[in-house]
What does this fold into?
Amino acid sequence: MCPLKKQRPAYLCYMNFNTQLPFTNSVIVPEKIIAGAVSYLNTKPLIYGFENGLMQQELELVIDYPSNIAASLLNNQIQVGLVPVAILPQMKEYYIVSDYCIACDGAVETVCIFSDVPINEVQQVLLDYQSRTSVLLTQYLLANFWQVNPTLQAAQPGYEQQVSGTTAALVIGDRAFAQKKKNKYCYDLGLAWQQHTGLPFVFAAWISNKPLPPDFIAAFNLACEYGLNHIEEVVKAYPHPGANLLNYYTRSIHYRLDAGKQKGLQYFLQQALPQQAFMPQVK
It folds into this structure.
């Protein structure tokens, strides 16, 4: 039995795939699975194995930013995606197919609201166009943690330059490293979530839109694990000025989808996500 369920029929499965994954031999699996991953630095440890030749006969990897990968999975253009978890209620059928994810248990560093005034003085928040999960988390925390009600505005590329006065911005991914040097206030959403709920937060997980064979999933897990076992190589392969990537990969980002992360994900999907009645249009 899967620990999380939706109101309409679907599957959300974790960890022990040999017993939990509802796979049958009648499922037709493509000769080569197309998997999508996001283009941020925080995914590099998870895709390092694939980029170094693991599963090259079984899998084709495509890279894009989160909302595009999510759209590709929803439209069946890919079979597996490291996607923002906020898309799960939109899927008719879904499976978590890896023991690994993008999560935090406290400050995450790269999902933040930046402003030049304290959060209680902010009148407008520009919302990053690259991830629905972070947008919905922002909306939830503004209302429930900070208890403020600024105007929310879907943003376009380059919006980070508009942070001024009482206008703040949600900035995610690698751009957040540079943004920290530009604004007086930085509100880390991972830390705010942990302070509010006492739980870790899962931003993205490896999701498939159909059952996959257990042997494929086992190999997929090993490929994800490869980068985590070679973190120093990953840091050297993807240098980024102004960021301590070793600290980022080993302290800020949590990659194991353990019981605590599952609990945090369950809370977000069942308690926090349904509260969000308004969703600005974000590409």
About this structure: Confidence is low (pLDDT under 50) at residues 1-28, 277-283.
